[in-house]
């Protein structure tokens, strides 16, 4: 039996604003001091009223434009009503039937070798407020629950994809590309551990049987908190649904939509209780907030302010610096700052291939080992470029450059690393190649003059005689490149 | 001169001339409360010490010749649905018993800036849901004109406090008539401004799209002055209007020339008390004598106002009151089995009957499968009601009508008949649905000695026109000068 996998992702992204979406409280992540970033509005105190944060709305617009969405000229806020202790008003301000954007797409690369891409549809993106966080202390038989409302009211963008994803790996790829785009746009830090990027997956199978497609019941897997878990959970769920189909023959519509969680330790999805009844959120327009009209001028201004998207940057870097698809993907997928670093280094040293090799091998290795981001990396792009520039200039060998590179990193000295430090290391370690061919030619002329026998032997056809001459030149001219010396001697002997 | 029952203009003039201090005035207010509030039941909370301290500061300012606010030294009572920092704010509900807001409502800040002295918090129907102040979880307020009658509601405490001479000014809130109807029942001037004219920040919401704060006073000048202090844009309320506030008091004495007053045929039908109708017609005659033209107009959709109101207001209320869940503040049941049970028990114990009734009405109207037939349909008819007014105001400057179908009814008379109680707001609801300003002014007395009010409605932001027209009537009559004998 054959089947097609059908996956749609619902992604919640916390927008990187100074303040919360409907009040002036700080939206910073602060799990260690509960309930300090609160005010009457986000505490849901009687009489408090929300006021929309324009910055949050503009960040959301920016994201929707980057996702090729249609922007609604009129949008409104709705109340989604349910009771939970982390929701102090008893409703969440969200957007129901008039989201500010819809019908977009995100292009993802399906195959790094062939460069094959696919557009994944975006049904809608809407803004809402985040809830607080419940904490349960059940140690020693306690049943205490505590609520931290620091997070309550943080702006949240919900991005709902079409069920266009066809495998767990594709779902992961989509999420990775989405995350990359959001960080490029600087709208979110997308830190999955801190919960600023959260993902739910809707999964089912279309079983191919007797020329027909039979859909299995759709399952929503909630709260996937890493790329790895997204892929793993979907893989496990696909397997479970297939087994369930074979065992029960249940198809879509036979049972209500099920919500499952993922147990990463056991590698299984687990049914969650309490969602059996279809919930009625009693959505209605929030009378405390005015509808928002979005002017074309604002959209055009935001569109013109958009940065280059990752997909476009990959294409440009490949053309400009003659890099492989694989190389540009490694560089661009590390994030905007890494790619900026690459471009700065490539520009400064004039050799994109060389810069790419160093970044994707040496620097990535050091970043991983030292657990640093590119922003924290002590060798800045212009210093790296200075170092790399010395290789084609024949000041140092490639091997010496790696030695200097490690020495720069191990320096540990205070203050920024500058190019003059490279000179110091080269001098101290005697790594300099004699680059001055004039001086080298003088030494060669002198050595030839002092060794008439070797010269005669060479001219008489004894090629090996040149070895003695090279040895002498190398001794006199410290740090000379043996290959250069050999070429110069031969040239001198042949012309002489 | 006794300050009891005096108007704001009189009191301000006396204080300016140094005839009595704000402390003396406030002490007189507290004496009056002590003397008669056990019978009237206007106040839920008074803070004598804080008030006298504030009064002393105002007196000191006045002595030093420091700049004084517009309400300097005047005692003001605040409906207990408006947040006062550090003072209990209960909405007359068990749910908020002992709740003390950490912040002042916008209007309370405005009162403080104007050097008013906040005397205390007044009784109301629980969460402002009611028309008689009988739905309070704490006490029943009585009408100072006849203690067997209700003062109206829901701002009955604020109306009774002024009518009984305890304070010259008070704040109410009006969602379907909750300022105008008690003003009518108590013989006061009570105004509901245009929706958005006064910030709702800190007004505990009943129905957000209808709620509006407004003043009670003995006379038009007092109401105009208080409105002038409270009105204006507030960035903390997204529904607050950004338009500048004209001086309502400056032009008050200038009569309106060529005034055209509309009278809706739909307003004079069965159910209207004959004495009320007579008083309203008499008031129209007064306007005619003052040179106004009375025109018949039609508000064809006004017959749906009660139905629309009792769809939209409870819908919003069911949502606005969801926050009272016993988790973060307010009443939490002592006994419960689990989380859901905690919600059910806390809300079951904390809310009174009428509040529960409206929460259930609203939750039903918003639920899946019923939303289109009830809430959405309600919104559409609401628009038609507004359109009626827009068409009417193309033909007239103001619309005059009764405030309520009858004078104040007896305590207990309607409390077990919610539908009859809902109908007592039939003349006032439309202004909230359409977002229009309206004022209730004294226009006579019933044979039983109960006040009768006249309602004037205007187009959006026509508060100045309403107040000037109200003042024309006031100058020509003396209904506003009468005071009840409470003691």
Summarize the structure.
The complex is a heterodimer of chains A (496) and B (487). With 496 residues, chain A is α+β, with helices and mostly antiparallel strands. Chain A contains 15 helices and 17 strands.
What's the gyration radius of chain A in Å? 32 Å
Largest sheet of chain B: 11 strands, mixed
CATH architectural arrangement of the domain at 8-243 and 251-257 in chain B: Alpha-Beta Complex
Count of discrete alpha- or pi-helical segments spanning 4 or more residues of chain A: 15
Helix content of chain B: 25-40%
Helix/strand-derived class of chain A? alpha+beta
Q: Which strands sit side by side, in order, in the main sheet of chain B?
A: 1-3-2-4-6-5-10-11-9-7-8
Shape of chain A: elongated
Low-pLDDT ranges of chain A: none
| Distance, first to last CA of chain A | 82 Å
Instruction: Return the domain count of chain A.
Output: 3
Portion in strands of chain B? 5-15%
CATH topology of the domain at 8-243 and 251-257 in chain B: Amidase signature (AS) enzymes
Largest interface, by Cβ-Cβ below 8 angstroms: which chains and how many residues each? A-B, 28 and 43 residues
Q: What is the CATH class name of the domain at 8-243 and 251-257 in chain B?
A: Alpha Beta
Helix content of chain A: 25-40%
Contiguous low-pLDDT stretches of chain B (5 residues minimum) are none
Shape of chain B: globular
Number of helices of chain B: 15
Tell me the β content of chain A. Answer: 15-25%
Q: Outline the biggest β-sheet of chain A.
A: 10 strands, mixed
